């Protein structure tokens, strides 16, 4: 049963919301000790909310559009009365006093939040190994990283600990772990989802998005969290589609009118075994009627340095509030190596004598990258390719910073350009999941969802 089917079963009283929660709580209790996907679990509160929903249904009362579905929430998104630590000792005792906009919308629609998921400290990482609370294991490839920084959210889905989870994506932090864990992850168009209540990594790049085991879960989540928020300065004030409508249509026809682009530079930086799986996926899309063309993106080597220069400066700025006066510990005194590296680099680049040399030039490079991606997308519906260029390493394996950053080379493009992107499982290499990434024009999120739904049906 897919997530949309489960939702209908709860609303039709064929499945109790309480039973849905109990099932996930049992799985979490059984698996979380070894996986470390959840940092905090609220079984009591979740069951109370589920009982409330079941009572409404029994009485014939109206329930919300998420009635009884269970969510896991990344530890950098504020949920009232929960420890929102961003997996850092800095905020180990920070109990949130409010709900982020996305959380308000989930609660208003009778979604049930079962707990808070693990992540790289302050989202600064690609493996979920930098968490103050310890690494998360990959349920789909035990002993290997689940990816990051939303590794706990992806692992929770892969281990079937919740229906839907939320992550944040600054340079691939939803899509990277979705690929490694063999689940679906979606980064919406920048500004489509409110960032209010998200602990910043890099405000001009961050975007909240969902992870799920099937496209119906992604669609249901997007219908809830996408939309204008007058309290958030990057929020888009425009009409948005009803995403669930797109997945009730004839999915196998989705590619027939689509023009799909591949980029040779994506293959050039990717492991051969991953490329074979992606090439096979392209063949399947062609068989479904998609027109596939090869394009060239000549600025791929510019993307990582541009991304990290912007990230360093904006992260340094966002962490100045963690000075030990109001939010627990002073961040520089207790944070891990990667967070400290980004703070020190950001402080250095932010100095007046260097800001023009580095940060302003990085912003110029981002404009160039955005323009080039816009040109590529002008005459095509989607760009497809691998989500990450290499398979996940074993937990504890020592990587140099640039080796870790290399995981992001194919995902940072969407954040720099502000475009939507998703990752869906394309296959396995030696039993390890490999993700297919789909990117589209700004506000063409629906095209990605339709394509993923068609690909999923194969």
Automatic annotation (TrEMBL):
Entry-linked NCBIfam families: gatA
Protein's GO biological process: translation
GO molecular function annotations of the record: ATP binding; glutaminyl-tRNA synthase (glutamine-hydrolyzing) activity; transferase activity
Function: Allows the formation of correctly charged Gln-tRNA(Gln) through the transamidation of misacylated Glu-tRNA(Gln) in organisms which lack glutaminyl-tRNA synthetase. The reaction takes place in the presence of glutamine and ATP through an activated gamma-phospho-Glu-tRNA(Gln).
Active site as annotated: 74, 149, 173
Catalysis performed (reactions): L-glutamyl-tRNA(Gln) + L-glutamine + ATP + H2O = L-glutaminyl-tRNA(Gln) + L-glutamate + ADP + phosphate + H(+)
Domain Amidase: 20-449
Native species: Methanobrevibacter cuticularis
Record family assignment: Belongs to the amidase family. GatA subfamily.
Source taxonomy: Archaea, Methanobacteriati, Methanobacteriota, Methanomada group, Methanobacteria
InterPro entries tied to this protein: Amidase, Amidase_CS, Amidase_dom, AS_sf, GatA
EC number from the UniProt entry: 6.3.5.7
GO CC terms, sorted: glutamyl-tRNA(Gln) amidotransferase complex
Protein name: Glutamyl-tRNA(Gln) amidotransferase subunit A
Subunit: Heterotrimer of A, B and C subunits.
UniProt entry keywords in alphabetical sequence: ATP-binding, Ligase, Nucleotide-binding, Protein biosynthesis, Transferase
